[in-house]
């Protein structure tokens, strides 16, 4: 069972917000949709959401299409997740390039 809790945080002093929404697709993949900004102070929220969504019988993937900003630490965290086997469900081409991934086709 996938925890449908949205992980959301706002840091008013930095004007940053990250929302993470988990969903289970029919292919045995749990997809976490990230919206907003991924900055160094919000990586812990991403880690908490990943830990809560991880199930032995399901793969994990990230939908990064609605991220509007990623700082250097956020990009490093995403690269580390990709290296550990977490997939990309959707992403903008600018973010794929930032992460060293090939641009999407189509």
Describe the 3D structure.
Residues 27-81 form the STAS domain. InterPro entries: STAS_dom, STAS_dom_sf. It comes from Halochromatium glycolicum. This is STAS domain-containing protein. Strand 2 and strand 3 form a beta hairpin. This protein has helices at residues 43-53, 72-83, 93-98; strands spanning 7-11, 16-24, 29-38, 59-70, 87-90. The chain has one domain: Transcription Regulator spoIIAA (2-Layer Sandwich). It starts with 6 loop residues before the first strand and ends in an 8-residue tail after the last helix. It has 106 residues and is α/β, with parallel strands linked by helices. The radius of gyration is 13 Å and the shape is globular. The chain has a five-stranded mixed β-sheet, covered by helices on one side.
Give the tags:
alpha/beta, five-stranded mixed β-sheet, 3 helices, 27% helix, 38% strand
Task: List the SSEs and their pairings.
Elements: E1 7-11, E2 16-24, E3 29-38, H1 43-53, E4 59-70, H2 72-83, E5 87-90, H3 93-98
Parallel strand pairs: 3-4, 4-5
Antiparallel strand pairs: 1-2, 2-3
Estimate percent helicity. Answer: 25-40%
Straight-line N-to-C gap:
33 Å
Helix-strand pattern: EEEHEHEH
Supply the helix-strand structural class.
Answer: alpha/beta
Structurally, the number of domains stands at: 1
Radius of gyration: 13 Å
Uncertain runs: none
Spatially, the strands of the biggest sheet line up as: 1-2-3-4-5
Under CATH, the homologous superfamily reads: STAS domain
What is the number of E strands? 5
Number of helices: 3
Strand-residue proportion:
35-45%
| Spatial shape | globular
Describe the largest sheet. 5 strands, mixed
Using the 3D structure, state the CATH architecture: 2-Layer Sandwich
What do the pLDDT scores average to?
A: 87
- Report the CATH C-level class: Alpha Beta
> Could you name the CATH topology?
Transcription Regulator spoIIAA
